[in-house]
Amino acid sequence: MSSVNKLLHDWLGQSISEEALAWLEPKQAQIANGAPERVFFTSFSAVPRYLGKDNLQLTPQDLAAAHDLVPGWFPGDWTVDQAGRTLLVLALPHNHTEDYVRSLDQVYSTADMGELIALYQSLPLLPHPELYRQRAAEGIRSNMSNVFQAIALRNPYPADYLDNIAWNQMVLKALFVGSPLHLIWGLDRRANPELARMLANYAHERWAAKRPVSPELWRAVGAFADRAIIADLAKVLADGDIAEQQAAALACSQSPLPEAQALLSRYPKLHSAIQQGELTWSNFSRDRQAVCK
User: Fold this and answer.
1) Residues facing residue 79 across a β-bridge
2) For residues 157 and 141, what is the distance between their CA atoms, to the nearest angstrom?
3) Shortest CA distance to 202 belongs to which of 227, 234, 226, 168?
C-alpha cells in the first residue's frame, strides 16, 4: 500500500464504522485487480451511501503527515466520502496510461458536484499528474463555487502544474468570487508580472465602481510593482483602512524599487512593524481570518 493510500486508509479507520470499511476494502481490491470499469463507476457513486459524509477526524499530526508526504496537501476539510472516493481512484490500475486517463475522463464527464469536488481534491495525489492540466483548468472555469474552491484552495496541484495563463485566471477568479487568497498554495512562488498587472487593473475597476478591494490582492503585486502600481499603493496607504494600509505596506516592502521603499518610509510604524517581523503576510492573513470568524 502506498504512503498516500495508507494515510487515507488509517484516517478512515478512525472515522467510519467497521461495516463501512468492510464495504470499501473489497471494492478497492476488485478495482486494483482489474475489475470491469462498471465496478469502479458504481462503487465511486455509492461511497456516500456506505461511508456517510461526516468530516474526517484528523489531528494536527495527521495534517503534518499529509504535508510532509505531499507538500501543500491539506485534507483538514475533507469528508469521509471524499477520502473513500480518492482511495477508489487511486486503486485504478495505471500502468497503461491511456486507459487510466480514459477512465478518469469518463468519471469526470458524468460526475455530480460532490464527485467533482473529490476528483479535483485528489489531483495532487494521482499518478501521471502532468496529464490533468486541462482538467484543472476546467475546474477553474466551473460556475460551481465548491468545485472551483476544491481546485483553487488548499490544493498544491495548480501551483505545481498550471501554466501562468491558467494560474493567473485562477487567482483573479478567486478574488472575483470572494475566496481568500492566502489559502491558495504557492501564491507567493507563482506571482508574476502579468498577474500583478491584472490585479492592479482589477483594483481600478473596483474603485471606479466604488466597491471594496480585498487587501490580499496586493500580496501578489508588490514584487512586480512599477511606478503606476506604486502610485496605487500610495493611494491605499493614504486612504485605506488599517488592513488595507498594512497590505499596501507589505507590498511596498517586497518591491526592489527605491520609490516603493521611500513610500514605505513615510509610514514609520508600519515600516518598523515589518522590519521587526511583527507584520508579515502570514500573520496578516491569520488575523483577518480570525476577524471573519
Assistant:
1) 55
2) 16
3) 168
DSSP state letter for 35: -
Among all chains, which residue has been given the C-alpha cell 466597491? 211
- Residue 234: burial class (beta carbons within 10 Å; 0-12, 13-18, 19+): middle
265 Cβ contact list (under 8 Å, min separation 6): 271
Grid coordinates of 64: 503534518
Instruction: pLDDT tens for the chain, 293 residues: list them.
Output: 489 999 999 999 999 999 999 999 999 999 999 999 899 999 999 999 999 999 999 999 999 999 999 999 999 999 999 999 999 999 999 888 888 888 899 999 999 999 999 999 999 999 999 999 999 999 999 999 999 999 999 999 999 999 999 999 999 999 999 999 999 999 999 999 999 999 999 999 999 999 999 999 999 999 999 999 999 999 999 999 999 999 999 999 999 999 999 999 999 999 999 999 999 999 998 766 544 44
